[in-house]
């Protein structure tokens, strides 16, 4: 799984395949937004495509958790890659036959997201199966850097690709990326954790699955600090979730710019993540983690307010980069703590439950923002979001257990949870 030096070849092969797909997926989502907005000139129509995708993810992530804990993670990801090609193939056929509509696109992308949820629910917990626990922080930082680079290239090149090729050819390119990712998965070795008797492989009944799901809920409910962090992040997600759609509407509708300018903004977020990776070690050493978290959440709110007060594209781009820095600095410690603190027997269920609770407000937030964008500008939406994000950051000061949890080193977090909550 892991060599004595470095993170091991399995980690790097896995990241290669995922990065190739992520690069193309960035262009794909730009392409979806551009095609819908250019076809309908309506943010609400774009919401019709995006909301079902979010609802599918929200519904399936917690339900898939027990299967992730029970079955071979590598095989689950391979199955997801194969079946995800089917709805994309249908979209290509409809597009080149001039039969693709918003309704068809929404349905097929919801099916696509359903199949991708198998991959995503597994990917959230596979890292401890590829690298040693003491290297999780290093691996998380590497992933942040790799993903930032991929998003930079995906944003810049994605905008150019969308402006150059048809939507149908973009879908074909996505299918190719899925095939490449599938091939890389064939070459990795995944260390499977030994699961407890509550999830024995021989018991495949519905009652057993429900019991596993219920035990995951009980685990999360019992560990109140994880529940507090989940609720906190869910509130943040409500205001930050619609950022992509707001940026796209700003570029195409408010500023009347070309699609490649969307790519530059998405790349700006990724540049911020890359800067965050290089700054994290230096900054985190000098600021206690609870205050570190509150400060950079507040900075995110300030950036959004600044974006709302300026209608200049280049000022917004700079603020988007700062937003990416803040988000990246927050993601490294929080992701590491979440993954390392949960017992291996429950990791798949609980991580996916947390992901679902964080995402539970995403469809609602997208619908609200899409409705607002029909009557007001994207800059007003930034301003409203920024004020609410800024008001959320002090909440950490009133959560003593969460403050204590955030101070822990990853390798001690699981023991602390067992000691405090049993």
What do you see in this structure?
By secondary structure, the chain is an all-alpha fold. It has a single domain (9-193, 200-421), classed as Growth Hormone, Chain: A (Up-down Bundle). It contains 17 helices and no strands. The protein has helices at 9-40, 43-70, 73-96, 102-123, 136-164, 167-185, 206-222, 224-240, 243-254, 260-284, 289-309, 313-341, 347-359, 362-373, 378-392, 400-406, 410-421. Helix 12 (313-341) packs across helix 17.
Secondary structure: elements and pairs:
Blueprint (H helix, E strand, L loop, with lengths): L8 H32 L2 H28 L2 H24 L5 H22 L12 H29 L2 H19 L20 H17 L1 H17 L2 H12 L5 H25 L4 H21 L3 H29 L5 H13 L2 H12 L4 H15 L7 H7 L3 H12 L1
Helix pairs in contact: 1-5, 1-6, 1-9, 2-4, 2-7, 2-13, 2-14, 3-4, 3-6, 5-10, 5-12, 7-13, 8-13, 8-15, 9-10, 9-15, 10-12, 11-12, 11-15, 12-17
Q: What share of the residues does DSSP label as strand, in percent? A: under 5%
CATH class assignment: Mainly Alpha
Low-confidence stretches: 195-203
Rg measurement, Å: 21 Å
Describe the structure concisely.
By secondary structure, this protein is mainly α. 79% of the residues lie in helices and 0% in strands. The chain is built from 17 helices and no strands.
